[in-house]
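For reproducibility, we list the full input for the phosphoenolpyruvate complex.
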Amino acid sequence: MSADRPRPLVAGNWKMHGLKSSVQVLHALAVGYPPELKAKVDLLVCPPATLIHAFALQAHGSDIAIGAQDAHAEASGAYTGNVSAEMLADLGATHVIVGHSERRAYHRETDAEVRAKAEAARRAGLTAIVCVGETREERESERALDVVRAQMRGSVPEGMDASRLMIAYEPVWAIGTGLTPTPADVAEVHTLIREEAGTLVGAAEQGRVRILYGGSVKPANAKELLAVENVDGALVGGASLVATDFLGIARAYLD
Ligand code: PEP
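The corresponding predicted structure, in tokenized form, follows.
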């Protein structure tokens, strides 16, 4: 990692998993996050909104950040069932994932909506983790780069503070499947994302945007994926629910 590159970050997306008792997982993470690991990599856990407050209290003093998985674009209003970025910040969240492929698919979220959510994150002082990534069909028809470029241009607001913006490259076909792209394919997409980030935050700042890889990251493949150029960390789904697996991924940075 060169001097001007961001510190790596391993983030866990718990999706719709976890009950109050799951706070014990956070305790195990804190115990397994000693100074030598803290020196190498940041940790972030994004539980369901119901657990953010309890997790933020439990994480206090551990250097583990707590984030959310989605936010409404508006700060408040008649939006039954929704949660705003301001509310998440009030609970202790410091980050929010926006535009995850499951939200794009099941909630029909468009690039414009994802961009509005990233704006909401900025307004509330949260770091936005904007997800992009192609489907299997798009990869097989060699459109992956075009799709990711279009998602970057449509989903990421201009002029974000580079230190408060992360992009997660998550090929849809790799999420929860055990399949992963080759390191060369990851490198190709992350290089494109870095270039596109430059037009959004400015060439001088583009190196500060963290670009995470997500999709079937496990302790067994973490070292190879995290060593790829322009990969500044991982967004982890299934493996983030088990403390030893999540820490096993972070420990890829130890040597
Ligand atoms: C995700 O959903 O963000 C993800 C990367 O899932 P998994 O690690 O389970 O593939």
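The first helix runs from residue 23 to 31. The pocket of phosphoenolpyruvate is lined by residues 13, 170, 175-176, 214-217, 235-239 (CB under 6 Å). Both points were considered when choosing residues for closer inspection.
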